[in-house]
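User: Here's a chain of 196 residues. Predict its fold as tokens.
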Amino acid sequence: MSEPSSLVKQLERLRRVADMQATAHSYLRDIYNRWHNLLTVGALLFSAFLLTFVMVSEEFVRRTTGISPDTFKWLGGIVAAANFSLTLIELAWRPASKAALHDKAVRHYTKIKYRIQQLEAKPDEITEELVTQIQEQYLEDYDLPRIPESKFLKVKRWHLIKVAISRELDKNPHDPIWLVRLKLWKKCKRNNEDDI
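Assistant: Prediction complete.
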């Protein structure tokens, strides 16, 4: 049987890791959502341009813009190819479905973090069985996406910066975020210079 302080430490570590996982997945979810929106809007705009190419006669374009019919056809072909390419990228890459999977992971890890916070509020009720149950729930991630190794350090850094900014905002809630970032950056530079 583990000591209560050991169980609390296990929960604290698991809460920190779950929080970092939730942040990492929310970061990737937002990136994939942005790409999905960009590709969708791009395809819609190119479709609208294609519609104008179909609706406008070559004679009208030549008379009003001075563009030759051949150039007009080339422009239509380029816009059609761009539209088709954006649609293919969207279908092959599927950023919307990747964003949805990362959103599911955010909900999973946030739920774990919330459950741990509830237990930490009542430390005398923490048992080895409860800790094991939460650990098992945390590990039920077989249908969740993984954080790619190539992105792990970047999202961990992003998470740590987010936590540091949040702590500073707790102290000074009226400071703009850009100012808090600047203060943290200067503080970090000073600490690095002191270490040298």
